[in-house]
Amino acid sequence: MTPKPGRPVRGSTTGRPIMAALDLLGRRWALRVIWELHQGSAGFRELQRRCGQMSSSVLTTRLAELTDAGLVTQTTDGYHLTALGTDLVAALLPLESWSRTWAES
């Protein structure tokens, strides 16, 4: 089941929005899928290739969860981030900047 605010999730029986987000984003490959789609839309096979050949079953599951959460959508030309997904990437960019500083230290 896709973690959503207001429903119990791992680490929170109350389903606080931050805990639901962390549960969703903490799932194996979820952030990688989001990050790859931030680089540009992709069909299933292309996205699988970009993600280091993750298994098709895991990719299918993650895409379904991220779509259900409103972060990803599929059109005839592939998978794309929604406006909410793009907002998530914008929220993650400071963390990317921090991680580069951390890597250099």
What features would you describe in this structure?
With 105 residues, the chain is mostly helical. The protein has a single domain, classed as Arc Repressor Mutant, subunit A (Orthogonal Bundle), CATH 1.10.10.10. 58% of the residues lie in helices and 8% in strands. Strands 1-2 form a two-stranded antiparallel sheet. The protein is globular and about 35 Å long.
Shape verdict: globular
Q: What is the CA-atom radius of gyration, in angstroms?
A: 14 Å
Number of helices: 5
Low-confidence stretches: none
Specify the CATH homologous superfamily: Winged helix-like DNA-binding domain superfamily/Winged helix DNA-binding domain
Q: How many DSSP E strands?
A: 2
Our estimate of the beta-strand percent is 5-15%
CATH architecture: Orthogonal Bundle
CATH class equals: Mainly Alpha
Mean of all residue-level pLDDT scores? 94
How many strands, what sense, and barrel or not for the largest sheet? 2 strands, antiparallel
Quote the distance from N terminus to C terminus.
39 Å
CATH topology: Arc Repressor Mutant, subunit A
Query: Could you say which structural class the secondary elements and strand pairing correspond to?
Result: mainly alpha
Largest sheet strand order: 1-2
Number of domains: 1
Helix/strand order, N-terminal first: HHHHEEH
Helical amount among residues, as a percent range?
Answer: 55-70%
